[in-house]
Amino acid sequence: MMTKNKKRPTIIDVAESAGVSISTVSRVLNASAPVDADKTQKVRQAIEELNYQPKAAARILASQRTETIGLLLPLISGEYFAGMLRGVERGAIEGGYDLLIHSTYTDARPNSPYRRVLGEHNTDGLIVFSDSLDGTELQRLCELEFPVVLLHRSSPDVLNIPSVTVENKNGAKQIVDHLIKLHNRRKIVYLRGPEEHEDSHWREVGYRQALDESGILFDPALVGAGNFDNRDAQDALDAMLLDGIEFDAIFAGDDEAASGVLRALRLAGIRVPEDVSVVGFDDSNLAEHLVPALTTVDAQIEQAGYTAAKRLIQLIERGETNLMTLLPTQMVLRRSCGCFYEEVKP
Amino acid sequence: MMTKNKKRPTIIDVAESAGVSISTVSRVLNASAPVDADKTQKVRQAIEELNYQPKAAARILASQRTETIGLLLPLISGEYFAGMLRGVERGAIEGGYDLLIHSTYTDARPNSPYRRVLGEHNTDGLIVFSDSLDGTELQRLCELEFPVVLLHRSSPDVLNIPSVTVENKNGAKQIVDHLIKLHNRRKIVYLRGPEEHEDSHWREVGYRQALDESGILFDPALVGAGNFDNRDAQDALDAMLLDGIEFDAIFAGDDEAASGVLRALRLAGIRVPEDVSVVGFDDSNLAEHLVPALTTVDAQIEQAGYTAAKRLIQLIERGETNLMTLLPTQMVLRRSCGCFYEEVKP
DNA sequence: TTGAAAGCGCTAACAG
DNA sequence: CTGTTAGCGCTTTCAA
Predict the structure, then answer these.
(1) CA of B181: how far to CAs of B184, B205, B262, B283, in Å?
(2) Domains in chain B, start-ordered, CATH in brackets?
(3) Could you tell me the pLDDT band of residue B104, with boundaries at 50, 70 and 90?
(4) Searching chain A, which residue's CA lies closest to the CA of residue B141?
(5) I need a surface site. Which of A22, A189, B184, B302 has the fewest CB within 10 A?
(6) Sheet containing B148-151: which strands, arranged edge to edge?
(7) What does the mean pLDDT of chain B come to?
């Protein structure tokens, strides 16, 4: 019960112990102005001896900078988020910022008048992933001129918020093209992601464009809801199989869904890639460990997170940054489309 | 109408607009003392109108509580960390705390005198994962009486830091037992995790205990370094195969390593589970999607993270919490050990 | 119940 | 180069 706080040293203690003023201590701490080498040494020593650690809140309050960026996301799961987090964190730390993460889905106090809105008071800026914040909220942040960078989502027309996205459309088009032209597939299933997810939208556009250009009629029956989730994808495919829908390839929307697809096919006794080609999107760590190894599109997940952090820090520190960053994607060929065979020693 | 559109509103603006003192505003904000219903209403309205958000730094500085907990971890990767993060975040938010995460590996300023030590000034307490902080650092935090909870690591003897771990030893023993007794395996490979990782240590102890009790001699040649990493595990197994080491089962250390093992075996043309049984540990999301589906031990990853957050918050708020929390583990039988067969429709 | 006022620990002018 | 001093925006006594 008794948590007696022996008071931690403050900048005043350091100053006294070093025989200088607190400003001088502050200066050596922040290298914000030249300080005599001798005193610098004394201050350093005092800091060491007292085991002094400046208190963030005081610095923040005085300097009006939190040196922290926030990341808003829906639900943390899968290799995808691990990669993204790694990238964002690296970008933040490199820029000298800490990272505060917040899953919108866990907010236990949605309607409290005191609800903490991550960005506006705890951080210098916010990375908003996909649809984890709705339009009105974004607009409000904009009006406050609060630095925001969108990740895997483009800015609402009027708002002009910097965004970092990947070449979903071209990536998708390219890989579907590959299925059509190289593997002679024509009945290609597409499993879309969550409704609101922009990545999913553009991947579908790319898919349809590829079909169009090859003169293949778009067939709504071949589109299912994979939701970027392996279970949902498995279910969606099971349903198609049950309905007797015929297909010779599957573009699963993302790698996670592809994993579910491969499973459904395996359980149905359908061979990949002999009977059906399967491709994903993302090239998450998952992809090359699936069976068969998954042909997919490298969506530079980590790089996207990293870039978003960098952009946000630019925005915070310089007041401006690139309005759009579109990361290129690249096809990664493995076995599941039909391109390679695993070498198995007999 | 407002005349100051430049600065964000402060508690003073709210007070003026509501015709009360800032203390009163603070009171309705924090429900820290009874306030007249009328004034409460006025204050609420003013807050709404001004779109007021209290500033965290000021609250923290004044109240000496950050309402933030920190999570220190090495490298974010894989399903494992996604699960852990989900748990920790849920626990934090439920308790009304924010979560600050910090990967030790990304710290770009390791030797700066101004290096920010996450816990000591930005947070009310710290969850330290595995070996992401060394003994001396832990000791220092202890001396400062800074609240710390260890996750997947037990406390150094003298320090008595609360810890949350899982039943690694029994879990491992049980699953190796299963291999021995149910599947008649006797030459069982163990792939250990990273050197410093305590989970790995106890899993090995469990493994050896199981061998012992069945009168099987421990064979050092059957132990390799999987490092809880699928690539390393694959390499380790490849090396064993190359050396002509014989085995009939593999306890891969964790699911990630098991994934690499399965791959190595597949490429070597060795059938699982017919020729060799394979089991993992963790029951991460990965496990049931491997081919064949992986028999493993449910290590309650998310629950462990959640519990750690809860314990830490208890420690912060009540000054004490359970010194040890040992989460039970449970075997999850799937196909890779030899127990089940996938139903494949012909 | 309410308000006035004293900090919380630090940064950043502003003098010297 | 260095010290003095005025805040940063809030919580929290202490009186009233």
Answers:
(1) 5, 18, 22, 21
(2) 11-54 (1.10.260.40), 66-166+301-327 (3.40.50.2300), 168-300+332-344 (3.40.50.2300)
(3) low
(4) A51
(5) B184
(6) A324-327, A163-166, A148-151, A125-129, A68-73, A98-103, B98-103, B68-73, B125-129, B148-151, B163-166, B324-327
(7) 87
User: Among B262, B293, B234, B289, which residue's Cα sits nearest to residue A258?
Assistant: B289
3-state SS assignment for residue A76: coil
Give CA–CA dist B97/B313, Å, rounded. 8
In A95-184, where does DSSP find H-type helix? Answer: 118-122, 135-143, 168-181
Beta-carbon separation of B96 and A103 below 8 A: no
Rounded to an integer, the average pLDDT of A35-51 is 89
First-to-final CA distance of chain B: 75
Question: A237-282, pLDDT tens digit by residue?
Answer: 999 999 999 999 999 999 999 999 999 999 999 999 999 999 999 9
Mean per-residue pLDDT, B81-109: 79
Q: Pull the structure tokens for residue A318.
A: 């310089």
CB atoms within 10 A of CB B243: 9
First vs last Cα of chain A: how many Å apart?
68
- As a whole number of angstroms, the distance between CA B30 and CA B262 comes to 55
- Residue with smallest Cα–C1' gap to C6: B62
Q: Measured between CB atoms, does A77 come within 8 Å of chain B?
A: yes
Is residue A134 within 8 A of residue A127, CB to CB? The reply is no
Length of chain B: 346
A7-31 confidence digits (pLDDT tens): 678 999 999 999 999 999 999 988 8
Closest Cα partner for A278 from A168, A205, A175? A175
Using a CB-CB cut-off of 8 Å, the residues of chain A touching B57 are 56-58, 60-61, 66, 121
Q: A148: helix, coil or strand?
A: strand
